[in-house]
From TrEMBL:
Name of the protein described by the UniProt record: Phosphate transporter
Membrane topology: Multi-pass membrane protein
Single Gene Ontology BP annotation: phosphate ion transmembrane transport
Species this protein is from: Streptomyces pilosus
Protein family membership: Belongs to the inorganic phosphate transporter (PiT) (TC 2.A.20) family.
Pfam name, any one: PHO4
Recorded GO MF terms: phosphate transmembrane transporter activity
Any GO CC annotation of this UniProt entry: membrane
Main location per the UniProt record: membrane
Origin superkingdom: Bacteria
The keyword Thylakoid appears for this protein: no
Length: 414
């Protein structure tokens, strides 16, 4: 019983560590556009997001119940399985944070839980219908719905504000963007903080501390909310830069449309108990807002790398978790080996990240790593564009001699 209590404590601490990584990994979802447009200063933005994440954690437990009761069979779960699932999710979060890709912490957790459960109890312990209806379908639908909503909202916003005073309109949209960013932070707390609540509750049920089908205890809700708020306050500056500058260049009108659309999708999914990826929703909304403005562009090279990361999240986290569960199956020493590997890998990733520091002082730099150059078509169009009326191109002036002035005699060469 003593060793069991130790492993359960390790699982709870590891779950809160995942919640912490979820916070700084997903800060960009709420505040990237607000920071990139200058509506809020970086430190103020992440502090505001942290507080609202904490508040949102207390608003609902529907998503937590989806994870703790619906995704896998509680009877076939041991605390070591939960630990292995968290190892896979944390390592994927840290790797994608290192390269600045806004992947889904939610799907990393789901993939880790599925991989560890399959390794421990077989495929029959995973509820396929819940996986499809409440995880996979929302993963595809969320960015599409949020993207379309943001695109049409952006077009409507520009059309309605066409005759408005430019400075007054921009100031109003900045205020609206701050409000919508707060709504996204609140929505993030109602969705993502609950995933850790669900994991801890599942571990407590597996360890016999709680009865099956129990709701998360109050101390679980508080600890999960505090952990994700602390992670949010630190700010995942690398991902904020990618989301705010790497996908597209946003104006306040676009930022307002993107965040409002994403918040609406996230809150609706939380109410329905869908374990939605806030990253997918916000990323789709940012791209939709980029396409909604006339002349706006989406950097598809960055978007493509992001899509690849999305597709790899579930299987990659599942594979790492399955290997971790296999090693944990050898007993206490196996669990110790996995724990040491997790700590060492996390420290190594952090050390690598210090080679190029991204923080609140340079998060809005325009030179975004991986930014694609102008395409062939764009360069060709620029090359054939005529100069403005009344100007003479420098190269033409250098190569074509001016006609002689009739008032001056022409020079003759002997």
């Amino acid at each position: 019983m003593e060793s069991f209590s130790l492993i359960l404590a390790i699982v709870v601490v590891t779950a809160l560590a995942f919640d912490f990584t979820n916070g700084f990994h997903d800060t960009a979802n709420a505040m990237a556009t607000t920071i990139s447009t200058g509506a809020l200063r970086p430190k103020v933005a992440v502090a505001m997001s942290a507080v609202l994440n904490l508040v949102g954690a207390f608003l609902s437990v529907e998503v937590a119940n989806t994870i703790s009761k619906g995704l896998v069979d509680e009877a076939g779960i041991r605390p070591e399985v939960i630990f292995a699932a968290l190892v896979g999710a944390i390592l994927w979060n840290l790797l994608t944070w290192l390269v600045g890709l806004p992947s889904s912490s939610s799907h990393a957790l789901m993939g880790g839980l599925i991989g560890a459960t399959v390794a421990s109890a077989g495929f029959g312990a995973v509820h396929g219908d819940v996986l499809v209806t409440k995880v996979l379908i929302p993963a595809i639908a969320a960015p599409l719905v949020a993207g379309l909503a943001a695109m049409f909202a952006t077009r409507l916003t520009y059309r309605l504000g066409k005759k408005a005073d430019g400075k007054a309109s921009e100031k109003g949209y900045r205020a609206g963007q701050i409000a919508s960013a707060g709504l996204v932070s609140l929505a993030h707390g109602t969705n993502d903080a609950q995933k850790t609540m669900g994991i801890i509750t599942l571990a407590l049920v597996a360890g016999g501390v709680l009865a099956p089908d129990s709701d998360p205890p109050l101390w679980v809700i508080v600890s999960a909310g505090v952990a994700i708020a602390l992670g949010t306050y630190l700010g995942g500056w690398r991902i904020i830069r990618t989301m705010g500058k790497g996908l597209t260049d946003l104006q306040p009108q676009q930022g307002f449309a993107a965040q409002t659309s994403a918040a609406t999708v996230i809150l609706a999914s939380s109410h329905l108990g869908f374990s939605l990826s806030t990253t997918h929703s916000v990323s789709g909304a940012v791209m939709g807002a980029g396409l909604g403005r006339k002349g706006g562009v989406v950097r598809w090279s960055t978007a493509t790398r992001m899509f690849v990361a999305w597709g790899l999240t579930l299987p990659a986290a599942a594979f790492v978790a399955a290997v971790a569960e296999w090693i944990c199956g050898f007993g206490s020493w196996g669990t110790a080996v996995v724990a040491v590997f997790l700590v060492a890998s996390s420290f190594a990733i952090w050390k690598i990240s210090r080679r190029e520091i991204v923080d609140h002082t340079n998060v809005n730099d325009h030179e975004v790593p991986g930014e694609e150059p102008a395409g062939v078509v764009t360069q060709a169009m620029a090359a054939v564009t005529p100069p403005p009326a009344g100007t003479v191109h420098e190269e033409l002036a250098a190569t074509i001699p001016a006609p002689n002035d009739p008032a001056t005699p022409a020079k003759t060469t002997v």
